[in-house]
Design goal:
The protein has 235 residues and is mainly alpha-helical. Among the domains are: 50-124, Cytochrome c-like domain (Cytochrome Bc1 Complex, Chain D, domain 2); 138-165 and 178-234, Cytochrome c-like domain (Cytochrome Bc1 Complex, Chain D, domain 2, Orthogonal Bundle), CATH 1.10.760. Helices cover 47% and strands 0% of the residues. The protein is built from eleven helices and no strands. It has helices at residues 4-23, 50-54, 61-64, 83-95, 103-108, 112-124, 138-145, 156-159, 189-201, 208-218, 222-234. It starts with a helix and ends with a helix. The relative contact order is 0.18. InterPro entries: Cyt_c-like_dom, Cyt_c-like_dom_sf, Cytochrome_c4-like, Cytochrome_c_Oxidase_Subunit. It comes from Dyella halodurans. It is found in: Periplasm. This is C-type cytochrome. Keywords: Electron transport, Heme, Iron, Metal-binding, Periplasm, Signal, Transport.
């Protein structure tokens, strides 16, 4: 597979998002507007006060651990995620675009500065130590090459060849379209399975990234989801 293949998938998927969002624009005669979809493709990088963020983590520690590595497999690791990704998730929990029995209530009391500061703090922490993974597994194949015959794109096209997500450049300019995609490597299989299932069902739908994932998840069987989750959690 050439380096052009992942980029081609990104371009195709992002084009699909544009069409999906445009197609859902409310008609002039419609009285109630549909839920808005946040377009993250030209989002400016998030910055905040990491020290202030560290001071706000008392409640976060109970689930996400003292160093941003989750204490149970149903919670995500936060350490090493990009600040932009983390901010978007907190904002969606805060605004009700993404719902969770715990996080909805926790985020409701946060100010915008709190969310920026927390995101910046967790972005400074070292991610969970990498595992080895099985490069010959079905999950590895799906992650690296996808399955063109079934219309499955390679996950690395957006999440990076090392599974570490984007590496945003340090400037105030808009980031690449994939700059708000998450670091997946080392996340628990249980958490990843739940998120892929939510994307497949359309439960997560608040932004343009989610629209990309809706299309991707629809191409995945339950066995594919299990294979990807097992590979990423061991990698």
């Amino acid at each position: 597979m050439t380096h052009r293949t992942p980029l081609l998938w990104v371009c195709l998927l992002m084009s699909t998002v544009v069409l999906d969002v445009a197609a859902e624009a409310p008609a002039a005669s419609t009285s109630a507007a549909p839920p808005s979809v946040q377009d993250l493709r030209r989002m400016h990088p998030i910055s905040g006060d990491a020290k202030a963020g560290a001071a706000k983590t008392a409640v976060c520690l109970a689930c996400h651990g003292p160093q941003g590595v989750a204490i149970a497999p149903n919670f995500p690791h936060l350490a090493g995620q990009s600040a932009s990704y983390l901010y978007v998730q907190l904002k969606e929990f805060h605004d009700g675009q993404r719902k969770d029995p715990v996080m909805t209530g926790q985020a409701a009391t946060l100010t915008d500065d709190d969310m920026r500061n927390l995101a910046s703090y967790y972005a400074t922490l070292p991610p969970k130590p990498a595992g080895k993974g099985d490069a010959s597994s079905r999950g590895a194949q799906l992650y690296r090459a996808g399955d063109p015959a079934r219309g499955i794109p390679p996950c690395q096209a957006c999440h990076g060849p090392a599974g570490l997500g984007p590496q945003p450049h340090p400037s105030a300019a808009p980031q690449p379209p994939w700059a708000t995609f998450p670091h997946l490597r080392g996340q628990s299989g249980l958490y990843l399975t739940k998120q892929l299932g939510d994307f497949k069902r359309g439960t997560r739908a608040g932004n343009s990234n989610a629209r990309v994932m809706h299309g991707v998840a629809q191409t995945l069987s339950d066995d594919d989801i299990q294979a990807l989750s097992a590979y990423l959690s061991s990698w």
